[in-house]
């Protein structure tokens, strides 16, 4: 088995589906707290899959994590669990400190105790893979070179600061205790099962529901965009071949200004599902107040992972964004559950 944390979220959920699609891959124990961002509907297709065990719980729960490690003896831990939304971190940073920092600390400590008691091959093969973000590096100007693994950490939001802190803990557990860790720092993901608080799914769904498409500030902030399936393949590669204690930047070589991303989505929707009044979805674009402390530009230099491990993204932004828009049109049940909030009903039924 491998232990995946946060596997009911956007990237973790895609990773679990992607991993289990390989009949030769190990099974997964999936530990997720099911916060507002956790959605078991994403894992519906695994209901009768004996290689997938779902556990409702918190990475900060020492007793539970220790019990899971003892019982399932995982070959690796892949840590996706986090509070992940910058705007929410601005409104309420406490959960970010609790899960991203204290939770990761707890997971590291439980992993250390577990690994210390392993012997032979299981000890040799064990990996702790920490999934992190490019936002830890801070903000670039238009002319700065893209982030490499050597950039200093300059996080600017409570979210990125909490992720930076967790990266430092992971690094220290390698250097001090020898825990076999790898860390990946990835750019903005997009794709299926993405919760519509983030720019791309929000714009797709607001467009279809005749709502405004909110652009923060002047819309000229730049992000590097990576299709989530490519992030999953990169994690598999780093988990299999990454050098212990190393960090790898993962990116799509796709720098785009927010306004251009939104206009591209509008154009795709104009073709696939035209507005009844014949106008373009671009009409719904609305400039709104900027995010406080909004980072201007992120850009990833992903040449290390290509050079050392042979990984490159398979999707361009054009192919990935088209697939993504089509996915939201083709999956009304998942979308309706999220938009209506009914995806939370299961939680209430099960746990109240
Ligand atoms: P997400 O918010 O969609 O999912 C997070 C998942 O973690 C949810 O299922 C949630 O229920 C679970 N969770 C939260 N707190 C938990 C806790 N204390 N214990 C157990 N489970 C908990 O996030 P995502 O977009 O899938 O991101 C996954 C990881 O990838 C995060 O660590 C994030 O920092 C990182 N990342 C995200 C992006 C991106 O563009 N989304 C880019 C780079 C890195
Ligand atoms: P987001 O998807 O929240 O990811 P992150 O902040 O982690 O990069 O936002 C992507 C970019 O889109 C970011 O520059 C903020 C901007 N944005 C908007 O302009 N409008 C919105 O409604 C949202 C959610 C984001």
Summarize the helix and strand pattern as letters: EHEEHEHHHEHEEHEEHEEHEHHHH
Biggest β-sheet: count, sense, barrel? 7 strands, parallel
Helix content: 40-55%
Strand tally is 12
- Helix/strand-derived class? alpha/beta
Helix segment count? 13
Distance between the termini: 30 Å
Mean pLDDT reading: 97
Radius of gyration from CA coordinates: 20 Å
Q: In oligomeric terms, what are we looking at?
A: single chain
CATH homologous superfamily heading: NAD(P)-binding Rossmann-like Domain
State which percent range the strand residues make up: 15-25%
Tell me briefly what this model is.
With 352 residues, the chain is α/β, with parallel strands linked by helices. A seven-stranded parallel sheet has the order 3-2-1-4-5-6-10, with helices on both faces. Helix 1 packs across helix 8, helix 7 runs parallel beside helix 9 and helix 9 packs across helix 11.
């Amino acid at each position: 088995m491998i232990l995946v944390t946060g596997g009911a979220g956007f990237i973790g959920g895609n990773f679990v589906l992607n991993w289990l699609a390989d009949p030769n891959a190990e099974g997964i124990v999936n530990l997720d707290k099911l916060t507002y961002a956790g959605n078991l509907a994403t894992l519906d297709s695994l209901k009768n899959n004996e290689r997938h065990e779902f556990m409702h719980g918190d990475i900060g729960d020492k007793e539970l994590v220790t019990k899971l490690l003892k019982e399932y003896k995982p070959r690796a831990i892949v840590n996706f669990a986090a509070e992940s939304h910058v705007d929410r971190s601005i409104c309420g940073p406490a959960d970010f400190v609790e899960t991203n920092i204290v939770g990761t600390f707890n997971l590291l400590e439980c992993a250390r105790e577990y690994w210390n008691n392993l012997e032979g091959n299981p000890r040799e093969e064990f990996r702790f893979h920490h999934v992190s973000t490019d936002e830890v590096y801070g903000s670039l100007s238009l002319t700065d070179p893209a982030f490499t693994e050597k950039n200093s950490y300059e996080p600017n939001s409570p979210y990125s600061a909490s992720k930076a802190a967790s990266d430092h803990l992971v690094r220290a557990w390698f250097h001090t205790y020898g825990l076999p860790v790898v860390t990946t720092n990835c750019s903005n993901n997009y794709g299926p099962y993405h919760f519509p608080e983030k720019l791309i799914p929000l714009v797709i769904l607001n467009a279809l529901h005749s709502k405004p498409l909110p652009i923060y500030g002047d819309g000229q902030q730049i992000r590097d965009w990576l299709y989530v399936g490519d992030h999953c393949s990169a994690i598999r590669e780093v988990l299999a071949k990454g050098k212990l204690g190393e960090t790898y930047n993962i990116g799509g070589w796709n720098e785009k200004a927010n306004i251009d991303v939104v206009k591209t989505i509008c154009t795709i929707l104009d073709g696939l599902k035209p507005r009844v009044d014949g106008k373009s979805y671009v009409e719904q674009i609305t400039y709104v107040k900027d995010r406080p402390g909004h980072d201007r530009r992120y850009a990833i230099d992903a040449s290390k992972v290509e050079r050392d491990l042979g990984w490159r993204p398979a999707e361009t932004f054009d192919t990935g964004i088209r697939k993504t828009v089509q996915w939201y049109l083709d999956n009304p049940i998942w979308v309706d559950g999220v938009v209506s909030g009914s995806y939370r009903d299961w939680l209430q039924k099960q746990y109240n």
